[in-house]
Design brief:
Length: about 200
């Protein structure tokens, strides 16, 4: 028996097979058979955030990082837009692209340009993100992180140099920045490249 329409959720049903049912030899069922069952309740649980990367309060984060949010279940991609998933610094919002993976349980924000060094960023995921049946988050989620540093340590800024003398150029970066080479320019002219 196949119902013509889906059964209602969270509803009790009774299946009855009468003694009018017979086998191929004409023997009828000896007694009425009844089965009671209840269908499952509808999904009423909104999606929950399982993980944000970089983690809240993280420091020394690579300037080449993407920001990812993992949900407890698949979400409706149409409910996660640039107005909902926001990455910002004191200077304003970061421009980026939003992508989905792992059956729409992971959302990634990929900045269109490198993040700034030693900069505080805020990740905001506004309420209203829905799962595939329409259950929506009801509160904003806010997380922060800070990128690592990079600096030229020699010569010092505004240091007096003697024309014609050799100078040593030195730069340092926090670990995890993913920097593989540094190019040194003087008056917009490339004077050297250092590869890690």
């Amino acid at each position: 028996f196949k119902p013509a329409a889906d059964l209602a959720m969270e509803t009790s049903y009774r299946l009855t097979i009468t003694t009018g049912v017979a086998d191929d030899a004409g023997n009828n069922l000896g007694a009425v058979y009844q089965l009671r069952f209840t269908t499952i309740p509808p999904d009423r649980t909104p999606p929950a955030i399982a993980q944000v990367t970089p983690a809240d309060g993280a420091t020394g984060v690579s300037v080449a990082s993407s920001i990812t949010v993992r949900f407890s279940e698949a979400i409706n991609p149409n409910t996660v837009t640039k107005d909902v998933f926001i990455v910002s610094a004191a200077s304003g919002p970061v421009q980026g692209a939003i992508t989905f993976s792992q059956n729409n349980t992971v959302v990634a924000f990929r900045p269109l340009a490198q993040l700034g060094f030693v900069t505080d960023y805020t990740i905001t995921l506004k309420a209203g993100v829905q799962d595939v049946v329409g259950n929506a988050t009801t509160t904003d989620t806010v997380s922060t992180f800070k990128t690592g540093g990079f600096a030229i340590t020699s010569p010092k800024n505004s240091a007096a140099l003697i024309q014609g003398r050799k100078i040593d150029l030195t730069a340092v970066a926090d670990s995890g920045q993913g920097i593989t080479s540094v190019k040194f320019y003087v008056d917009n002219s490339l004077v050297g490249t250092k590869t890690a």
